Structure formats: C-alpha cells, structure tokens
Amino acid sequence: MLKQGFPSLGTRCFRLVNTLPLDNHRAMRLLLQLILVTYGVFAGWGAPAASVAAVVTNGAAQIAVAFDEQCEYLLLREVPKTKKEVLVATYIITRPSIVEALCHLAEHKVPVKLKFDERQSDYAGMKKALEKLRKAGVSCTAVKFRSSYAQMHDKFIVMDRQRVLTGSYNYTTTASKENYENLVLIESPPIAEEFAHAFDRIHAKN
Hints:
Layout: E1 2-4, E2 14-16, E3 20-21, H1 25-38, E4 60-67, H2 70-78, E5 86-90, H3 96-107, E6 112-117, H4 124-136, E7 139-143, E8 156-159, E9 163-167, H5 173-177, E10 182-187, H6 189-201
Parallel strand pairs: 5-6, 6-7
Antiparallel strand pairs: 1-2, 2-4, 3-4, 4-10, 5-8, 8-9, 9-10
Helix pairs in contact: 3-4
C-alpha cells in the first residue's frame, strides 16, 4: 500500500499511493488510523464514529509522511505555497527558517495567524521569534491556562483550508536537528476545514 515518494526527502519519507480513494473501506481505515496515531491515539477497527471529528466518505486525499530531520524540509516546501491563509497552532516556535517562512507570507499580504502556549513567551528564543513575527504582520495569540499542568499542545498548520501539516514535530531547532519526530501532510479540504475549526476553538482556559 505504501510506495516510496519524494526522493528529495530521503529514504525515510514515504507517501501513500498518489491518490487515495477514501470511499474504499480499507483505505479509509488506513487514513483514519494514520491521523489518530499521529496524536498517540489507538484506533481499533471498532472505534466509535464519535472518536473522530471528520470522516471523508468520497473524493480523494494525498498524504506524505516525513521523519526526523526531513520534517523541516517538508514544512518549508509546503508552507510557502500558501496563497490565502495560514493558521498555526503550536506549543512553541523558535526555528529561524520557519519564522522566516511565515514572515515572508505575512509581508506578502497572506494572513498568518499563530496561537501558542503563553508560558513560552518568556523564553528568549520565543521572544525573539514573536517580535519578528509581529513586526511582519503575523497575528500572535498566547493561549493561557489556569492549571499549571495544562498545555497548548496542538502542533498543526492549516494552509488555504486545503492542506494540513500535523504531527509530533515542534517548530524548534532541537526538533529539527536532534529529536525523533514525525510530520504528516494531508491534502484534503474536508480534513483541513476540521483543523481550521479546531484552530478557531482554541482559547484561554481559565
């Protein structure tokens, strides 16, 4: 079912067959498992429909998966393609190349919205990134929590409500260069729309 793709991403990046027919029952299961496993959720075949926000029953989706040092490459390949809107939900963002990519879009009149964990605001690298992002016109919103244990733990980017990048990958140098990470690209307007709705629902939890 898997075939190697994106040669420039290296041997550790694979793509599902170029067009995945989601009205095929087996393909549907595989797609939903991949999305849920990305978030560390076990999805058995008997999982109730309520356990997922959206199920695509027709049309097609394309999926690419990158690991470790290739996550940054996939992100920087996809984000600059955005024409209308970028929504970024993240715990932290400090990686200069990613900050630059978002600033470039904002400076070229593409609306960019960022939501991040408020506790990271005092970190020097985050302060520098936020200053640059805001100067470029990026809307930056700190998400606050009353509980000391709660976190803004989402990590996803919605591009033009057509494509989504999501996975374990944090937008930091450590994640880009040292960690074991994964990043999944999902090209599906219905799925992207659900992530956009999730972004809109993110707010302070007091």
